[in-house]
């Protein structure tokens, strides 16, 4: 429920500065496998030192996009530019990218240090330099005590760090990570996410990560591209994707949300933004304050609101003309910090409200079958026109 909103600690937003050129640019890229179009006329800019996530359901084209950047596949149409230069035809080993696979692909018969050194030996680097870089990498991923072990003598998290060290040893400018934490359990995954962010920031590298885990993308990324069947639906910071999704698809894909279909009754400009009125399910009226609205009165739109923005009370509000609906508590999900109340409305549909579990000894807790009112402020919902 309470989502991390990404690495907000760092002031980093080159995409807002028109004078900064993108580091990587996919320009009108299409990839076909026979008749099947895996990536459709896609344009995307990624900036130097960015931690960028490709997020989407299985088969939406994330890995294909990454493999084209690494040079394992070529676009059918369009081009990929790295620092402004077209890299089509450049073989993978000559690109300043390195890909870390989900399987890690470690050599089982080699020790940790030999695994890390392997790519450097292939490149015929002097022995002294190889040794120095292996030591540097072991230190970076905190595996110095394990240098002589074989992969089978390591935990899953340690193996993941060997794979990371091996990918970084060649000092790529861009590290491509395909589901890098997929094999780890939840707790280790969360710890490793923060390690990855530290390493990326300390080394000043550009990371492109493929994941279908929305929480992971929210935690690690500067920006996220949400994909659907070969196209990008939205590219934005985790906070923007969460607070201002541009479509039903993105709203529904990230986090928990109530989405109700309705008709736009009108949009009245006020100051810098305006107030949209929507009649939901032909039933209740909502008013939404937002920057703009690209639909006209009468259009089919959706009203969306996150459960944590919905207040629940057994008392009726003073004004029930808009942004207030009543129903009966049908189910309660206890999530530790939060409880989620599933409320059945008079029209038979359900609506969710989440409430922090702060003990209020004087109040009787809301329970199953209670008659309740759900209310929210006009600036906490959104109108989705796509
Ligand atoms: P996942 O999360 O499951 O890895 P993804 O978003 O990374 O999915 P891709 O691996 O990019 O998806 O695949 C996109 C689509 O292209 C899929 O439908 C896949 O079957 C198809 N595809 C990928 N590679 C090939 C190939 N070499 N030949 C034919 N079809 C392919």
Automatic annotation (TrEMBL):
PROSITE patterns, alphabetically? ABC_TRANSPORTER_1, ABC_TRANSPORTER_2
> For this protein, what reaction is catalysed?
ATP + H2O + polyamine-[polyamine-binding protein]Side 1 = ADP + phosphate + polyamineSide 2 + [polyamine-binding protein]Side 1
Per the UniProt entry, the Enzyme Commission number(s) are: 7.6.2.11
InterPro entries from the UniProt entry = AAA+_ATPase (IPR003593), ABC_SmlMolc_Importer (IPR050093), ABC_transporter-like_ATP-bd (IPR003439), ABC_transporter-like_CS (IPR017871), Mo/tungstate-bd_C_term_dom (IPR008995), P-loop_NTPase (IPR027417), PotA-like (IPR005893), PotA_ATP-bd (IPR017879)
> Domain of life here?
Bacteria
Q: Which UniProt keywords apply?
A: ATP-binding, Cell inner membrane, Cell membrane, Membrane, Nucleotide-binding, Translocase, Transport
* Single GO term (MF): ATP binding
Domain ABC transporter, first and last residues per copy: 24-254
- Which SUPFAM superfamilies does the UniProt record give? MOP-like, P-loop containing nucleoside triphosphate hydrolases
General function of this protein:
Part of the ABC transporter complex PotABCD involved in spermidine/putrescine import. Responsible for energy coupling to the transport system.
Q: Which family does it belong to?
A: Belongs to the ABC transporter superfamily. Spermidine/putrescine importer (TC 3.A.1.11.1) family.
How does this protein assemble?
A: The complex is composed of two ATP-binding proteins (PotA), two transmembrane proteins (PotB and PotC) and a solute-binding protein (PotD).
What this protein is called in its record is Spermidine/putrescine import ATP-binding protein PotA
């Amino acid at each position: 429920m309470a989502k991390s909103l990404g690495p907000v600690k760092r002031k980093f937003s080159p995409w807002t500065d028109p004078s900064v050129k993108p580091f990587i640019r996919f320009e009108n890229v299409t990839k076909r496998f026979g008749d099947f179009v895996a990536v459709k006329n896609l344009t995307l800019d990624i900036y130097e030192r960015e931690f960028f996530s490709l997020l989407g359901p299985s088969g939406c084209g994330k890995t294909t996009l990454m493999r084209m950047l690494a040079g394992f596949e070529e676009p059918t149409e369009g081009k990929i530019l790295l620092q402004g230069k077209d890299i089509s035809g450049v073989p993978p080993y000559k690109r300043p990218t390195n890909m870390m696979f989900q399987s890690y692909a470690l050599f089982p018969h080699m020790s940790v240090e030999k695994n890390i050194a392997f790519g450097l030996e292939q490149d015929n680097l002097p022995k002294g330099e190889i040794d120095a870089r292996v030591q540097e990498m072991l230190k970076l991923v905190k595996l110095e005590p394990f240098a002589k072990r074989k992969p089978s003598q390591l935990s899953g998290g340690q193996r993941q760090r060997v794979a990371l060290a091996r990918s970084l040893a060649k000092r790529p400018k861009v590290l491509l990570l395909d589901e890098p934490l997929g094999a780890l359990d939840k707790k280790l995954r969360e710890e490793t996410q923060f390690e990855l962010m530290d390493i990326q920031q300390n080394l000043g590298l550009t990371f492109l990560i493929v994941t279908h885990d929305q929480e992971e993308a929210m935690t690690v990324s500067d920006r996220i591209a949400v994909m659907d069947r070969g196209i990008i639906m939205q590219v934005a910071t985790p906070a923007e994707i969460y607070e201002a999704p541009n479509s039903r698809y993105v709203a529904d894909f990230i986090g928990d949300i109530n989405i109700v279909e309705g008709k736009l009754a009108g949009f009245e400009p006020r100051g810098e933004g305006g107030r949209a009125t929507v009649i939901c399910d032909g039933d209740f009226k909502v008013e939404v304050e937002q920057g703009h609205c690209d639909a006209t009165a009468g259009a089919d739109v959706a009203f969306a609101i996150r459960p944590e923005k919905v207040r629940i009370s057994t008392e009726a509000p003073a004004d029930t003309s808009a942004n207030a609906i009543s129903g009966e508590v049908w189910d309660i999900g206890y999530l530790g910090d939060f409880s989620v109340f599933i409320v059945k409305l008079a029209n038979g549909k359900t609506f969710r409200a989440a409430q922090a579990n702060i003990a209020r000894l004087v109040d009787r807790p809301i329970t199953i079958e209670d008659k309740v009112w759900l209310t929210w402020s006009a600036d906490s919902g959104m109108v989705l026109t796509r």
